Amino acid sequence: MELLTVIISALLGWRFAPRRAAWLLGAGLLTGAAAQAPLPPPVAEYQVKAVFLFNFAQFVDWPEQAFKDDQAPIVIGVLGEDPFGSYLDEVVQSEKIGGRALVVRRYRRGEDVAGCHILFVSPSSAAQLERVLADLHGQSVLTVGDVDNFCRRGGMVRFIKEKGKIHLRINVEAAKAAGLTISSKLLRWATIITTGKD
After folding, report:
1. Weakly modelled stretches of the chain, pLDDT under 70
2. Which domains does the chain have, with CATH numbers?
3. Crossing angle for the helix pair 42-59 and 2-12, to the nearest 10 degrees
4. Torsion, Cα of 198, 123, 146, 76 (10° steps)
5. What is the DSSP pairing of strand 190-193 with strand 60-61?
């Protein structure tokens, strides 16, 4: 988390405790405060995306039946080759949202995905996206990716890097179909699209 504090300090010129740093960086990026600074080198791109994944857990509501019980954690999954390394684990370590712990799980194949709430589909798994989305049909899983046409193909949130900044495209239609409610606080900083357009 120390690196995250350094990134925040560089982008915003502030200093925060590491535990709050992830939320503040995500909030800063969502409000545009940090968006004026270019992203650091490519490794940092996935560090910022890891913070976004953490923040999605705060800006998305899942139906009660998406969790086994009141103590069940919010599971952030990575399908395919993991571009985050240990960083995603570090971001969510010891964090809780709505009384639920956050855990990270990694999946090699789409058919192995189970009990997940936020699923990042890595570029290495882009070829199986349609099958993964079909397998997740009827489940309340927020699907996230950064491959071309991700939302057009039925994914829910796409990261786009333009001019050194991370932008979001969100397929609200797909999220609603999965029983998810995305906060207007997140939607106001995203480009809203529908399946078939990206």
Report:
1. 1-43, 195-198
2. 39-193 (3.40.50.2300)
3. 90
4. 120
5. unpaired
